[in-house]
Amino acid sequence: MITQADALRTAVSESSSRSGVSWAAIFAGAAGAAALSLILILLGFGLGFSAVSPWAGEGASAKTLGISTIVWLAFTQIVASGLGGYLAGRLRVKWANMHGDEVYFRDTAHGFLSWAVATLVATVLIVSSAGGAINGGVQAGASVASGAASAVGVASASSSDPYGYFVDSLFRDNRPAPVSDDASHGIVTRIFAKTLGTGGQLTADDRAYLAQLVTQRTNLTQSQAEQRVDQVYGQAHQAAEDVKVATQKAADTATKVAAWTSLWTFISLLIGAFVASFAAIYGGRRRDAVEWHDVDHLGQHYAAPTAHTPVR
Predict the structure, then answer these.
(1) How far apart are CA 177 and CA 174, in angstroms?
(2) What pTM, to 2 d.p., does this model score?
(3) Across residues 242-252, what is the average pLDDT?
(4) Are residues 99 and 26 in the same domain?
(5) Within this chain, do residues 147 and 286 fall inside the same structural domain, yes or no?
(6) Residue 303 · residue 291 · CB < 8 Å
(7) What is the pLDDT of residues 42-86, one digit of tens each?
(8) Residues 72 and 204 in one domain
(9) Domain boundary at 220, 244, 268, which?
(10) Quick one: average pLDDT of 181-198?
(11) Which end of the chain is more exposed for a tag (fewer CB within 10 A), N or C?
């Protein structure tokens, strides 16, 4: 007949020679946490993309999407890490006759390790699964932005033909010969692009030459044509400045968003680590609260001692 004392000695002997880390429980909790994180992150991406609209004044604002992303990330960390920590604590091996502080430390360590493994696995899964969707959305947004910029910018012409302006200057005459509309438009575009690219003002020669091209196709005098050249070039210069300012604002906004995203991701991960550790403690206590029974060879029942008895 196995006595309670024999069972206690056997449990103490096994616990003293057994590792304090239950890797099976840790990996089980990490697998559950990683899978739940992947599901929730993909759901968040779907909800986020469905809330975005390419039409002005429709869909959620950037501020709303940013706050929603932060809240969803924190919610994902709390739920997934809590599940992983609880599984790691509940499925761990019992530690017999263990001091209460040591059990508390081991449960905390199991929850933290399950969170760490789950974070690494979830990062790989999320990057591989959601990377295509994110790249598609970014490329679509970049296409819209580049289309809007090209509609008001003329500096791109100089990059496609960097020597066009100098070639035109080589054959320039005091009194330009009549040319087709396409040719004159190309000359004006290259002069504007060259001047706007340097951020300066039209030179006296360019201004006079453009005025001569205008007088060929209008009833304006030379002085009136020069006034029109100044007016139109001022409008083009203002449009280029607006594009430059908008680009700088977009870059500044993107930098701030990246900084806030990194900060809140760091905070969310810390929350996840804490929740996983706490859930592992709760799961371990639930695991140790379960009493197990055995039957000796005579059919007599006895209750074995609990997994650990705090020693004070």
Answers:
(1) 9
(2) 0.58
(3) 88
(4) yes
(5) yes
(6) yes
(7) 888 888 766 655 565 665 666 777 788 888 888 999 999 999 999
(8) no
(9) 244
(10) 79
(11) C
Number of domains into which the chain is organized:
2
Mean of the per-residue pLDDT values of the chain: 75
**Cβ(137)–Cβ(46) under 8 Å?**
no
- For residue 160, count other CB atoms closer than 10 A to its CB: 8
Which domain does 16 fall in, by range?
4-152+254-303
Average pLDDT over residues 298-302: 51
147 and 169 co-located in one domain: no
> Are residue 228 and residue 166 in the same domain, yes or no?
yes
Asked if residue 309 belongs to a domain, the reply is no
SS (H, E, C) the chain: CCCHHHHHHHHHHHHHHCCCCCHHHHHHHHHHHHHHHHHHHHHHHHHHHHHCCCCCCCCCCHHHHHHHHHHHHHHHHHHHHHHHHHHHHHCCCCCCCCCHHHHHHHHHHHHHHHHHHHHHHHHHHHHHHHHHHHHHHHHHHHHHHHHHHHHHCCCHHHHHCCCHHHHHHHCCCCCCCCCCHHHHHHHHHHHHHHHHHHCCCCCHHHHHHHHHHHHHHCCCCHHHHHHHHHHHHHHHHHHHHHHHHHHHHHHHHHHHHHHHHHHHHHHHHHHHHHHHHHHHHHHHHHHHCCCCEEECCCCCEEECCCCCCCCC
Q: Do residues 95 and 64 touch, judged by C-beta distance below 8 A?
A: no
